Amino acid sequence: MRKPFAQFLIAGTLALGLAAAAAGEDYVVIVNKDNGNPIDAEFLAKAYRGEAKAWPAGGSVAAVALPDESPVRAAFDKAVLGKTPSQSRSLWAQLTFTGKAVPPKMADSDDEVVKLVAENKNAVGYVSPKAKLDAVKAVK
């Protein structure tokens, strides 16, 4: 009886691993083509938590986000912030109310995120892997 249970556990573990790997490909982080700043997971998380307000080489970070209902937003918030979109919204409500930070600019679609990032040298955003990225630079 133990052998089928072990096979079940192995299959379940593999399925979870594949789901986690796929989740890592649910979004692409983008910056303006002229933005030469290094960006890593820690800086990205700080930018979307309101902790990083300026790029290392100068200029104010202009974060762009998708709506709460977006599956891309959910994947990004979970992977980068360890939060759900509603938890992120609550964090930003507190930061805004206390005057500690300005929330990311909201965009309605991947195309709008790309447009906003392309127009601002200091912008950072995330989009689905299917988005057309000709006007911006993918960093993740």
Widest sheet: strand order? 3-2-4-1-5
The helix count comes to 5
CATH top-level class = Alpha Beta
Question: Which fold name corresponds to the CATH topology?
Answer: D-Maltodextrin-Binding Protein, domain 2
Percentage of residues in DSSP E strands: 5-15%
Walk me through this protein's architecture.
By secondary structure, the protein is an alpha/beta fold. 46% of the residues lie in helices and 14% in strands. The chain has a single domain, classed as D-Maltodextrin-Binding Protein, domain 2 (3-Layer(aba) Sandwich), CATH 3.40.190. It has five helices and five strands, in the order αβαβααβαββ. The chain is globular and about 35 Å long.
What are the defining features of this structure?
140 residues; alpha/beta; D-Maltodextrin-Binding Protein, domain 2; five-stranded mixed β-sheet; 5 helices; 14% strand; globular
Describe the structure in brief.
This protein has 5 helices and 5 strands, in the order H-E-H-E-H-H-E-H-E-E.
Describe the protein's topology.
Layout: H1 2-23, E1 28-32, H2 41-48, E2 62-65, H3 71-81, H4 85-97, E3 105-106, H5 110-119, E4 123-127, E5 136-138
Parallel strand pairs: 2-3, 2-4
Antiparallel strand pairs: 1-4, 1-5
